[in-house]
Amino acid sequence: MGLDLLFKIAGVGILISVFHTALKQAGKEDMAHLCTLAGFAVVLVWVVQLLGRLFTTVQDVFKLF
């Protein structure tokens, strides 16, 4: 789970940086920024889901709520 997610995030980061560079050199800076923002949103959703699972696990372990 942890290492898998780390490689996914790294892969998205590399892919987005390649797209950003290619689009910026093509003169489409607005699309490059949009691509970067979309990649950030995808990674943010993954991290938020992971944090949700962490909080649920902590609640279960300590019998909170």
Automatic annotation (TrEMBL):
Transmembrane segments: 6-23, 35-55
Keywords, sorted A to Z: Membrane, Transmembrane, Transmembrane helix
Protein name: Stage III sporulation protein AC
Organism this protein belongs to: Anaerospora hongkongensis
